[in-house]
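2024-03-11 09:14:02 INFO receiving multi-entity request
2024-03-11 09:14:02 INFO entity count = two
2024-03-11 09:14:03 INFO echoing inputs for audit
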Amino acid sequence: MSTPQPCPHTEQAVAWALHALEPDEEEAFRRHLPGCADCRATEAETEEILAALGGAVPVDEPPPRLRDRILDEAARTPQVPQARLAARESRGPGGGAGNGPSRGVPPRRRAARRGRPRLRARRVAALATAAVVAVAAIVGLSGYAAALKSERDSEAARAQGMVTLVRQLATPGTAHAFLASSAGGAAVAAVVVTRTQQTLMPVGLPANARDHVYVLWGLPGGGTPTPLGTFDVRDGGPGVQSVGSSPDGAGFAQFAISLEPGRAAPASPSDVVASGRAEI
Amino acid sequence: MADVADEAGARSAARAVDAGLAARVRAGDGSALIELYDRHGRSAWALVRRICADERLAADVVQEAFLAFWRDPGTYDAGRRAFSTWLLTVVHHRAVDAVRREGGIRRRTVPAEAAEDTTVPGADQQALGAVVAGRVRTALGRLPREEWQALALAYFGGYTQREVAALTGVPLGTVKSRTFTGLARLRSVVGPVTGSEGAGG
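2024-03-11 09:21:47 INFO inference complete, emitting structure
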């Protein structure tokens, strides 16, 4: 209805979908496309046919490590905040392949030119208000984006720590223990002990005050507890952390965590907050 | 072989599953990204591998395409086209860009006309893909040689139409019309176009 004559650029639309235009032609067509329903329809149809052509290539198994790489990289990569997504218009398919954001057809504003002075003054006032709102929205958004980013970064670091922990579990000669505040209670921390070091993941330990410190203890069967290392729990902290090292850490029968005043481990634990048996 | 109605049903079911997964990716769910990779990674890889002779380059292209989608899932509009169509379009463009960047050392492959049917059992998408792929291959085999050449040199070879004209010694206009006609012949075997572009424009 809107275009009684078919657009004369249909063949360019096919070449565009094929990604087979020269750079200057591509640029010109990029400007033409948003305003031409014919060409957008040709683009969509050509993409369907080409995808079928691409899908007809005999299936080949990708290298297995490609999947792992995508998984690892995604865990490290923050996403664009959602608020921006909602505000944006839909784009062409190229995504990162060099397609800029699509330009919607701008509404014609001929009325503004004909506006009378009084009307214009009102428009200016309205625009100023709109600008203030927009600036507030942008500031708010960027603050939100920054918060989201740091949250995602620490989330990614935590996830990475978990991967390290699980990897250690699979190493021969590794013991682990789930530490609970009461027998049979929910674990508040997990510890993984190799021959050379202890890795701890607090899951339910409250953040400690700065003048206190948590201490991880190893208990040999029937012997006295040995302090293995100190650690802090902070809100939004790294999650998994390495706590001290001991040459015979894997030999302990039990582990315990105490909260101690000061910043150093005492000779024996004063306030034990969690304990658990070592398992292999 | 699959009934047309069954095929259309399978197609829209697969599309709905993909749309759900894409929505989860938008909500920050990494496992949905990997599910999409498990559903469509093979065909994306096969296409990219065909365009980029170099396996490392191909792996980079596929990885970057999925990560770009992860970073900004809004680049895919589920209302406009199926995820599989969008993904193959994106990886195709990226693969072509990659071989063009490689310049002199690239080895562009001109596809063989006959291709054996490899069916990966399992997921609905793959089974469906095999049915359509079989038909497309049959149709490709019937395309006039010069139409196939114009299409394949651009799509699989990564050549611009101007380069195709120079390579095959025919005017640019002829390359364009051969491509257009070749695609029109394939259209009938691809099945109904599932996008809803018409609604928007």
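2024-03-11 09:21:48 INFO post-check: Residues 207 and 235 of chain A are 6 Å apart (CA to CA).
2024-03-11 09:21:48 INFO post-check: The beta strands of chain A are 175-180, 187-193, 198-202, 212-219, 226-231, 241-242, 254-261, 272-277.
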